[in-house]
Amino acid sequence: MTAPTPPAPRISIVLAARNCAQIIGGTLDSLRAQSFRDFEIVAVDGASTDGTTEILRDAQRDLPVKLVSEPDRSVSHALSKGLARATGDILGILCADERYYPSTLASAARWFDETPDAAVFTGRLDFMDEHEIVTDSFDAAPFDSQAVLECALVPSISATFFNRRLIGPELRYDPDIPTCCDYELWSRLGYLFPAEAFRRVDASVAKAFRGQVSMSFRPESFAAFTRDKLAHLETVLARFVPEAARDRVRRRAAAGIHLWAAEQLRTLDPAHPDILAQCQAAAALDPGNDRIARFVATHGKLRYDAATSTVTRFAPDRPGPAARSVPIKLTLGFDRNQPGVRPVSGNPPTLRTADAPWGFSYTLRAAPRDGAEEGQRWMALEAEVLQGAVGIAEFDGKDLRGERVLRGEDGRVRVTIPLDPAWPPVVMLRSAGIGGSVIALHGTELLIDPA
After folding, report:
1. Which structural domain, as residue segments, surrounds residue 201?
2. Is 449 left (phi over 0), alpha (psi -120 to 50) or beta?
3. Which of 160, 180, 209 delimits the end of a domain?
4. Would residue 280 count as lying in a domain?
5. Same structural domain for residues 228 and 107?
6. Which of 170, 205, 341, 431 has the fewest Cβ atoms within 10 Å of its own Cβ atom?
7. Is the backbone peptide bond immediately before 6 cis, with ω within 30 degrees of 0?
8. Can you give the CATH number for the domain in which 345 is found?
9. Mind listing the pLDDT tens digit for each residue in 334-384?
10. Following DSSP, what letter does each residue of 75-144 receive, concatenated?
11. Are 399 and 359 contacting, i.e. CB atoms less than 8 angstroms apart?
């Protein structure tokens, strides 16, 4: 007599892993801690050689792990295999550098019970430092299919759960393009489902490491990311956009992909040479795109001429060898009425930022004394974040430009901010994603490069 087939689990978690033995234990522990137990883990291991495979096999003792361990072509290929093997009505996707909160799966089950016609629920993704302490968060804007296509909106896949019963065979990845399979999935679902099928929740769903452990935080990854998103775009256009409108949609969306790469690179490495190239590619594809103007206006070293669709550099990435420090009068300003803003100590000057996550906190004005020669001016700070994260940027009284975000793990660093002659020589310090951050200023000087 044939044994009855066990019922499918309510939730499937697809977990992609390869050579991540040092961190995957934390991911598995987050699944062990779930208060909701009706789930399976479809673990796709890319034939790891560092013990990851053995950790996943050991986890089968106390976790419902379906393990596939074999070589794969890419992360897209691995996740594609996992999606094909998942059987739950609700599906989540994790990588080894990510974790769920203990209530995450119970919340996901409740959301779909309450709203069964939703295709997707997305919450907040928190970022952790190397000690697994949450430092800041990402909360995506409401779903907009055009914004997704143009990479102006990039929902977090690890903070998302999908209604597999409703989406059906469209819940899949393209295994033939190595990276950015999320972009193709989101874009395709945006054409297949109305905006109201994509639901947001005001809750932290997952957390992820911020750092080199993830491809998303490696500047060298973005050339491949751009290439692969452009390839995914062609797949989506061919299926959903009439040929007569395709070139117009392509140019706008492709420009957005290049701008997304420039935006990410600026956050990771403000001096990265590809930032200018990505902006120039966007300007050539979509002249007059106001997103280009907005990006350039806050970059700190670029100018955009909308009339000619050109992006150029007005300042180098760093002061040249001829730059010299000049005597200055330094003024520190802050609003005593801004909650949380207060000096902590005076040697070295140590400052606490506003309680608000992105609250403007302090202004530094370095006015040269008489006799300073003309040239490109830079504010140079030697700074160390002691708690949280602090943004440092040129400030015109309203807008920030060229912001650099420092975190505790950066240690003591030297930051140089180019000063546009059209703006007052003022630099702003603010809390960067987490209120009540603390920064020590070990030195401040004004540099002038006459070259």
Report:
1. 11-209
2. beta
3. 209
4. yes
5. no
6. 170
7. no
8. 2.60.120.200
9. 877 889 999 998 889 999 999 988 889 999 988 776 656 677 888 889 999
10. HHHHHHHHHHH---SEEEEEETTEEE-TTHHHHHHHHHHH-TT-SEEEEEEEEE-TTS-EEEEE-PPSP-
11. no
